[in-house]
């Protein structure tokens, strides 16, 4: 019971001390006959009441941007340093006219600096900054702020600060994008019937900018539609501020990404001039270009800000990769078609095998041979006896001869007989071989087919050498027209 009484006494003592402090603070700026100051507050002045309860209170905003510090695409924020000034009219304060005469203030709206502590006893509008992330007041030895009052009872409060606010950026057209960020200031509790905000001055020292940014910045007043906020049941709220148009510098991205990737696509067309038989050179060129473009694409996706879909530069890189991949796929199709053709070496191997088998038995006497009998050739049978003459054998077209191998009858491994016969006999033997050797005719046919296939490959490469540049030109026309037009809008 005793502890409860002690607690009440302590609480009452605190209330008395607090009320005395309030009384002393108000007395320091209250109007009296003994203390003469430039400004004083009447005894009935209340810092909780709005100056004009029955009409609109005009709040003027002055924004002087000194420099844009950071534009962060990753967290959609803009940081800049500025002088943020708020001015309003309070007819309840009392201004000493004698002090004005002594100070020789020439104009009625001239600003007279007063003690900054006076702001604690004045009514101050509850300024609300939309999409605000941080508001930092700059301090050196003390807070960099000031308070001025005019003879017309206008109050101006200024602060040097750094503001970071959120800008809802859209990066679908990156890096060809243009962002519009709105800085809006209004009242948190008083609607348009009680408080109206207006921009008195708006300045941006863009010529003295020392920080290199990725954008070209333009500051403009807000549109009329952006000066009103619909608060639903609370009514409409007046807004003031500016809009900041950010146009990205594209030259850096053209030099870093667009130009190299486009040149790689052009270099890939050189592969169409390389013969299809040169597999290592053509494959090395296309695979190297493909891997380089994939590496550039990975770098782009890492440094590109987030978007709902693909950005403009990602679409470009994917198109370049597809063009190189198409050239690689065309060459793969040629190699696949070439692998289905019959091998010429296998036919030659079979002919050599048949020749060796014929000559291996009895030193060339157990097969069909040719004997040089003076100026007349005869054929030798399996038993070694001379048979029909060569002319009779050539005339006998009814019989079917599969293969004739011309060798010296004394040695199967010696040089062909055509090297020791006269010109007339050589021509007759060659004509007989052409007539009786279907495999040689097959070999000639295969050579013609190989030449024809080689011509087909060259025609295919020439076709794509013309088609791919046309397709790439059409893609560039559609790409740049689409993105530049819609990004500007």
Explain this structure to me?
With 489 residues, the protein is an alpha+beta fold. The chain folds into three domains: 27-249, Distorted Sandwich (Acetylcholine Binding Protein, Chain: A); 252-341, Neurotransmitter-gated ion-channel transmembrane domain (Methane Monooxygenase Hydroxylase, Chain G, domain 1); 347-440, no CATH class. The chain is built from nine helices and 17 strands. The strands form four sheets. Strands 2, 3, 5, 7, 8, 9 and 11 form a seven-stranded mixed beta sheet that branches. Strands 6, 10, 12, 13 and 14 form a five-stranded antiparallel beta sheet that branches. α4 (279-303) packs antiparallel against α5. Residues 1-7, 9-26 and 344-426 have low confidence and may be disordered.
Keywords:
disordered N terminus, 489 residues, 40% helix, Acetylcholine Binding Protein, Chain: A, 7-stranded mixed beta sheet, 5-stranded antiparallel beta sheet, Methane Monooxygenase Hydroxylase, Chain G, domain 1, 3 domains
């Amino acid at each position: 019971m005793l502890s409860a009484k002690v607690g009440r006494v302590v609480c009452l003592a605190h209330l008395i001390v607090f009320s005395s402090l309030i009384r002393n603070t108000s007395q320091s700026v209250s109007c009296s006959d003994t203390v003469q100051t430039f400004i004083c507050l009447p005894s009935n002045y209340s810092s909780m009441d709005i100056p004009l309860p029955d009409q609109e209170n005009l709040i003027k905003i002055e924004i002087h941007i000194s420099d844009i510090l950071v534009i962060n695409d990753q967290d959609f924020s803009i940081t800049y340093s500025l002088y943020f000034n708020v001015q309003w009219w309070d007819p309840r304060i009392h201004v000493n006219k004698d002090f004005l005469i002594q100070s020789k203030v020439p104009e009625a709206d001239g600003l007279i600096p007063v003690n900054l502590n006076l702001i604690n006893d004045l009514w101050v509008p509850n300024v609300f900054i939309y999409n605000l992330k941080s508001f930092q007041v700059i301090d050196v030895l003390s807070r960099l702020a000031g308070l001025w009052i005019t003879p017309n009872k206008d109050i101006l409060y200024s602060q040097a600060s750094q503001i970071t606010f959120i800008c809802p950026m859209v990066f679908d057209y990156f890096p060809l994008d243009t962002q519009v960020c709105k800085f809006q200031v209004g009242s948190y509790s008083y609607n348009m019937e009680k408080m109206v905000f207006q921009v008195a001055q708006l300045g941006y020292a863009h010529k003295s900018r020392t920080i290199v940014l990725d954008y070209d910045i333009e500051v403009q007043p807000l549109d009329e539609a952006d000066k009103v906020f619909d608060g639903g049941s609370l009514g409409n709220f007046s807004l003031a501020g500016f809009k900041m148009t950010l146009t990205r510098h594209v030259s850096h991205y053209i030099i870093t990404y667009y130009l190299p990737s486009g040149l790689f696509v052009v270099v890939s067309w050189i592969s169409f001039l390389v013969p299809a038989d040169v597999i290592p050179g053509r494959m090395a060129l296309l695979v190297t270009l493909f891997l380089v473009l994939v590496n550039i694409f990975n770098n782009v996706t890492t440094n590109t800000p987030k978007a709902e879909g693909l950005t403009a530069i990602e679409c470009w890189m994917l198109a370049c990769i597809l063009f190189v991949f198409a050239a690689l796929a065309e060459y793969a199709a040629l190699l696949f078609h070439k692998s289905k053709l019959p091998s010429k070496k296998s036919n030659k191997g079979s002919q050599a095998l048949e020749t060796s088998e014929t000559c291996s038995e009895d030193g060339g006497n157990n097969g069909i041979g040719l004997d040089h009998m003076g100026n007349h050739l005869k054929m030798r049978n399996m038993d070694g006896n001379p048979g029909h003459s060569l002319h009779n054998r050539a005339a006998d077209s009814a019989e079917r001869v599969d293969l004739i191998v011309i060798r010296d009858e004394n040695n199967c491994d010696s040089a062909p007989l055509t090297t020791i016969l006269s010109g007339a006999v050589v021509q007759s033997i060659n004509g007989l071989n052409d007539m009786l050797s279907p495999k040689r005719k097959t070999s000639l046919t295969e050579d013609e087919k190989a030449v024809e296939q080689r011509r087909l490959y060259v025609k295919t490469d020439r076709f794509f050498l013309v088609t791919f540049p046309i397709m790439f030109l059409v893609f560039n026309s559609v790409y740049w027209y689409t993105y530049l037009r819609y990004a500007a809008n």
